[in-house]
């Protein structure tokens, strides 16, 4: 197994960091790694905001739901879908590009572009013995986050990534069975085998939690998902995304 | 520079492959690498369809706009946003999760989840001396692609990845200037410097094309973007995505 695959398979989210900032060289290498990812039709439809300011980080931590590792880390990156520069280009070329820029298709393009770049950033960080965790909690209160980061129209903060020197060694979380996620030639829709795969997975996850907590935590993956699904979250998103100029038509 | 960052920075999309299929071991390692990526709240909201069937690949190549490397490669992966298993879980737990599953927020979660996994897959492939290219063209005719791959409701094919043994060595495409993509503490909105960065980038890109084509191709990045923006594409997407159970509220 080569070192790239080793790094990939060794991933675990780090939520506790040493009090040691990343160097400018590390930040630059992480951003350059992000930029090296594929981009749809060369569109490069994202931006990255690196937050160093302590007060801003503290505020972001509160907005993200009180996760202290949003404030306490080596560096905090915010990945944004960004068609702002494309809007400027359209203006320069005297084009009305709004139909295009505001389409659901372009929304998907920007989100995918940003996510590909982000995963490169995370792997680059991990390869430098740093740890990282994605912060989807940034979407809890995106209007406040946007104001804080002063993002213009056609820019949408999607998630954060806290990066730093790891101060913990968490276990890995086991993924869904290969056969459940990977389909050959077409989507396998046999519900019986689908549900039995989930049952088997539940047993594995349940055994893992039991073992890790000395029998205290009784939980399954489908149980976690059922709880997650029972709480509609961030239902303001559709309206907010549209207000920012995305996903309107 | 470590080998992970070397692999990341060495990326270029490969569009011509040797006629040599990936082994099952290679496919499995690529999928396992994909699955090792972070996933929002452990939701694992994607599936991967690996297409081996030659007729299906040929059909996908036509649907994607006649790109022959969609058919001629070592393996063709289709990454799908997938909340189908979550719908089944909600049913099993006697929950009505439709508000949640159909939200724009969950649509973003699934697209980000799938893209993070995909980028791991691409890097894993590249680390094995394979080449890869994302196929956004799969979204040209997504209804036909969905039928061909028999994806159920709450499953949305997002893009393909053609992987294989490279039969070409393309140049790298230079990215936007670091300062243009990376903002410190807040989004830099000084339009003058923003536009001058784009102008400088245009000059670099223009010199690159001139040099590569012996002066034949005159082009800039903003010129390419202006052409891209002048053609609204895949405007059916909003309706189609909603029909599949995503992004409705």
Automatic annotation (TrEMBL), chains A, B:
UniProt cross-references to InterPro entries, sorted A to Z: Flavin_OxRdtase_Frp (IPR016446), Nitroreductase (IPR029479), Nitroreductase-like (IPR000415)
Family matches, as Gene3D superfamilies: NADH Oxidase
Keyword set, alphabetical order: Flavoprotein, FMN, NADP, Oxidoreductase
Nitroreductase domain: residues covered: 8-165
Signal peptide: none
Keyword Oxidoreductase part of the UniProt annotation: yes
CDD domains for the chain: NfsA-like
NCBIfam families given in the database record: PRK10765.1
Annotated family: Belongs to the flavin oxidoreductase frp family.
Name of the molecule in the record: Oxygen-insensitive NADPH nitroreductase
Name of the encoding gene: nfsA
């Amino acid at each position: 197994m080569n070192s790239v695959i080793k790094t990939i398979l060794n991933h675990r989210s780090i939520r506790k960091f040493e009090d040691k900032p990343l160097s400018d060289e590390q930040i630059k290498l992480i951003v350059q790694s992000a930029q090296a990812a594929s981009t749809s039709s060369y569109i490069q439809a994202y931006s990255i905001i690196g937050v160093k300011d302590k007060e801003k980080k503290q505020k972001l931590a509160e907005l993200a739901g009180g996760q202290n590792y949003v404030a306490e880390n080596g560096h905090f990156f915010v990945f944004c879908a960004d068609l702002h520069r494309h809007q400027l280009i359209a203006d320069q070329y005297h084009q009305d590009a709004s139909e295009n820029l505001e389409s659901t298709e372009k929304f998907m393009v920007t989100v995918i572009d940003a996510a590909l770049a982000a995963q490169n950033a995370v792997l680059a960080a991990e390869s430098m013995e740093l740890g990282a965790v994605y912060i989807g909690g940034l979407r809890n209160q995106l209007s406040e986050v946007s104001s804080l980061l002063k993002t213009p129209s056609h820019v949408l903060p999607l998630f954060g990534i806290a990066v730093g020197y790891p101060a913990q060694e968490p276990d890995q979380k086991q993924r869904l069975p290969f056969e459940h996620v990977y389909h050959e030639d077409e989507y396998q829709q046999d519900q019986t085998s689908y549900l039995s795969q989930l049952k088997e997975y539940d047993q594995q996850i349940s055994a893992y939690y039991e073992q890790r907590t000395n029998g205290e935590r009784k939980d399954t993956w489908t149980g976690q998902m059922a709880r997650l699904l029972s709480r509609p979250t961030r239902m303001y998103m559709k309206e907010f995304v549209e207000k920012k100029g995305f996903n309107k038509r």
